[in-house]
Amino acid sequence: MNFPTLYNARMIPRLSFFFLPLLAFALPNAALAEPSEVFTRTLDNGLKVLVQPDTRAPVAVQQLWYGVGAAHEPPGQTGISHVLEHMMFRGTERFPGESFSHTISSLGGRDNAFTGRDYTAYYQILGHDQLAIAMEMEADRMQNLLLAEADLQKELEVVKEERRLRTEDRPEASAFEQLQATAFHNHPYGQPVIGWMSDISQIDQKQLRDWHRRWYAPNNANLVVVGDVDPEQIFEMAEEHFGAIPRHEVTPAPRRQEPVQKGTRNVSLHIPAQTEYLLIGYKTPVMAQLPQEQRWEAYALSMLTSILDGGNASRLPKRLVRDRKIAASASASYSLYSALNSLLVLDATPSPGHTAEEMEQALLAEIAELQAQPVSETELQRARAQVIAHMVYAQDSLRHRAYMIGMLETNGLGWEVEQQLVAGYQAVTAAQVQEVAQRYLTDYARTTVTVHPLNVAKVPPAP
Amino acid sequence: MNFPTLYNARMIPRLSFFFLPLLAFALPNAALAEPSEVFTRTLDNGLKVLVQPDTRAPVAVQQLWYGVGAAHEPPGQTGISHVLEHMMFRGTERFPGESFSHTISSLGGRDNAFTGRDYTAYYQILGHDQLAIAMEMEADRMQNLLLAEADLQKELEVVKEERRLRTEDRPEASAFEQLQATAFHNHPYGQPVIGWMSDISQIDQKQLRDWHRRWYAPNNANLVVVGDVDPEQIFEMAEEHFGAIPRHEVTPAPRRQEPVQKGTRNVSLHIPAQTEYLLIGYKTPVMAQLPQEQRWEAYALSMLTSILDGGNASRLPKRLVRDRKIAASASASYSLYSALNSLLVLDATPSPGHTAEEMEQALLAEIAELQAQPVSETELQRARAQVIAHMVYAQDSLRHRAYMIGMLETNGLGWEVEQQLVAGYQAVTAAQVQEVAQRYLTDYARTTVTVHPLNVAKVPPAP
Is A146 found in the same domain as A281? Predict the structure, then answer.
């Protein structure tokens, strides 16, 4: 299941490179090859430039990552990072209206952007000799965004419609929003990335201008270029276009620490839907929040997720969907790379004649089994191969490689972590998978949302 | 059950005047007498002064109310209003250390303060000719608070201990905190008044200074004096002491609108406790948020609460505690006067041999009965008499009268509302009680917290 934690300006559903088809056991040698080198330089104003050359085709990807996303938003302004991302396509004085995107597409390139919990990122895919114009325009809108009132009113309507289509009309997305809002009491991941509808409605020009000024500083950004380019040339070009933008102090968002959860939380959600649906979330640590000596836990949680839901042979699709036929679909996901501690999420849609209640029993039985018995070496190897193959094949996409560099850097992990991932996964043992299952996937740390289809809207008005 | 939504600097449990013993049917004529007049004047700097003369004894109560409380707090700074309240007793240059309270007590007076969701208030009870010094000191600490680092470190420890004693070591209070945090997803009442422990720990001097500067403005305050005083003299005295304090713009807290709840939320809480315990909260509107023509709903919800839990003859104590003997205690409460929409709360502790599960069934059966059948005229009269008698007897306390004036004024209702309360309650019909039960006490709007006693602390560490 794709949960909506990423939003982008043109409503392309979640970045498709996450879902490349994978070959399970046919692990190529490339898996163990050294990843290409990343060259970095930090400009005087704090902008970090990261370049990974790849000469296979005469193209390049530029991504500009800002360290601001939904998790930085204050209450009453949820969704503002994403609205600002939309407004970034509404022009500056020099490049008015939609001339940014028109310029890129007139060069045969593509551009877009996405907003997540921890970041907002803008990207262009271009011929390798056309980066200068992309940099010029990015540097321009980092400083000189117009944010015209008339454009804002239009974009707010677009975003509200996006929320209706992608959250309110999608039972799984509504359930996911409830899951996070209920699991987190003092943690910004409780806030939806798209924002609460009432907050979106009240975002104004001044707030957006303040948000842009506060966060869109060169010292709060990472510029990533991957492709057929020369790092030195890129550094010079970055200096030329971004070098004159002044650094300014970025006040961090307030730290919020989630209180320890002390028991299961269950939410019923009566909304229009075709079938029942079940979501379970467990509070789990992520790599960026674990001390170095405990980072194996994050790898083990990833492997556990892959054992449940990594390819057709994994437990959830095999057991619940194909063998027992009680579920139409069942999946698991875990946010290894999040900046803040997050949820390991299981979900299942019952097949006709079956219920969400059965899904809950089946999923909890899977967790209980992971806690009671170590997984077999065969299964572990298959899961490991899945995870690593996924990573390796994804390397084929320039955009994905830029994404990994930018995301790891922006989330505080550092791009170098990518080079440790294969070793991290390979080191996970069956005992470790069992240990994290016992430690984190407990009833104390669990939140469950059940969707009950409502055919007639009989929800009472809000008080 | 007293839920901790009010905190004061010296940890006196919730203001005792709420719990005066009441005579159910012996409604005195005073109930229908005109309440004493309130004289008001607004100084040029925006400070509103409200005076209610009462010559029965040569004493006076002064209360200074600021329009800031837990509901105004940003995430990461929950509890800051209450910490500031504590620091207000730590001195200024002119009245250093604890000389404020020492001065008041050397005059035979008493002083304290309390912090709620919607306000922070300071009060003194003094001889009627000693108000000048109280005003002088209040005006001084409105502007010149020291907020010394050493004092802050001490007070933070005091407040953390207060949180341990009053929330973490009290299962009912922990459950209430969970109830609010789970019921509200985008509403400041989800935040505890005392603050999350991790937030309290990180409150610093600069934040407190900013909080004090931002909110402690004369134009964000109401000064209430009740007692044997002459209104004109009080206005002059207020002008003398507060008149020179400059008005300044107070940026309001962001508005947050709670999304419509679409199904029951159930929380299990495994904590050290003697017995199981059950809390149910329904999202309900409050008077301040209802349009004038719908305010009867708030009165009807109050009457409904009194029918369930207003004196020994009311339904919960009679049926659950005395007749069926399944509950050791059972109660109901509703926040008629809150600034923002809140919860109507039911709770019950099972008697030995009974369970929280039975409490839930019994309480839900009570709600179902209120929805299915109108209450009898006799019951309605008894509940009305309870509510009105409560109000009338409470009038006997100067402090309570000042409290009602200050609270109604600060919460946006206006002190005049008090004079309409009796008529409001008297107008409620059995059909209206049934109507609000049907409209608001639904499964869609319900959140339940169940405490399961945990004898050994086996909660896993936080991720």
Answer: no
Chain A residues touching residue B190 (CB < 8 angstroms): 185
Q: List the single residue in B with minimal CA-CA distance to A73.
A: B75
Q: Is B447 helix (H, G, I), strand (E, B) or coil?
A: strand
Query: Considering only CA atoms, which of B296, B439, B450, B300 is closest in space to residue B363?
Result: B450
Q: Could you tell me the CATH number of the domain that includes residue B146?
A: 3.30.830.10
What number of residues does chain A have? 463
CB atoms within 10 A of CB B293: 7
B85 is catalytic: yes
Q: What's CA A113's distance to the chain center, in Å?
A: 13
- Angle between helical axes of B149-163 and B80-87 (0-180°, round to 10): 120
Supply the DSSP symbol for A166.
Answer: I
Closest CA to B259 of A161, A446, A459: A459
Structural domain containing residue B49: 22-242
CA of B284: how far to CAs of B287, B333, B334, in Å? 10, 11, 8
What are the CA-CA distances from residue A307 to residues A1, A27, A325, A380 (Å)? 16, 17, 19, 7
User: A63 lies in a domain?
Assistant: yes
Please compute, for residue B382, the number of CA atoms within 13 A of its CA located in the half-sphere on the CB side. 17
Residue B209 lies in a domain: yes
Q: Which of A183, A208, A242 is the last residue of a domain?
A: A242
Both structure tokens of B207: 């934040």
Regarding whether B168 and B310 lie in a shared domain, the answer is no
The partner residue sitting opposite B74, judged by closest CB among A74, A197, A269, is A74
Q: How many Å apart are CA A117 and CA A193, to the nearest integer? A: 6
Report residue B451 as tokens. 């405490």
* Cα dist from B111 to A48, B121, B134, whole Å: 57, 11, 10
Residue A331 and residue A374 in one domain: yes
Q: How far is Cα B59 from Cα B41, in angstroms, rounded to an integer?
A: 21
pLDDT of chain A, 463 residues: tens digit per residue: 556 567 765 443 333 333 333 333 334 444 444 557 999 999 999 999 999 999 999 999 999 999 999 999 999 999 999 999 999 999 999 999 999 999 999 999 999 999 999 999 999 999 999 999 999 999 999 999 999 999 999 999 999 999 999 999 999 999 999 999 999 999 999 999 999 999 999 999 999 999 999 999 999 999 999 999 999 999 999 999 999 999 999 999 999 999 999 999 999 999 999 999 999 999 999 999 999 999 999 999 999 999 999 988 999 999 999 999 999 999 999 989 999 999 999 999 999 999 999 999 999 999 999 999 999 999 999 999 999 888 888 888 999 999 999 999 999 999 999 999 999 999 999 999 999 999 999 999 999 999 999 875 555 555 5
Which of B203, B257, B258, B287 best tests the A interface by mutation, with the highest count of A CBs <10 A?
B257
Element (H, E) at B61: strand B59-66
Kindly identify which residue of chain B lies nearest to residue A177, measuring between CA atoms. B185
Residue B96 forms beta bridges with which residues? B91
Query: CA-to-CA distance for B256 and B268, rounded, in angstroms?
Result: 27
| CA terminus-to-terminus distance, chain B | 33
- A73, A85, A138, A409: the active-site residue: A85
Same domain for B306 and B181: no
| Contact between chains at B460 and A452 (C-beta distance less than 8 A) | no
Q: Is residue B248 included in any domain, yes or no?
A: no
Q: How, if at all, do strands B446-453 and B265-271 pair? A: parallel
Chain B residues within 8 A of A461 when measuring between CB atoms: 260
- Rounded Cα gap, residues B195 and B83, in angstroms: 9
Cβ(A205)–Cβ(A147) under 8 Å?
Answer: yes
Chain A contacts of B202, Cβ < 8 Å?
A: 255
Contact between A196 and B190 using a beta-carbon 8 Å cutoff: no
In this structure, the answer to whether residues B199 and B63 fall within a common structural domain is: yes
B11, part of any domain: no
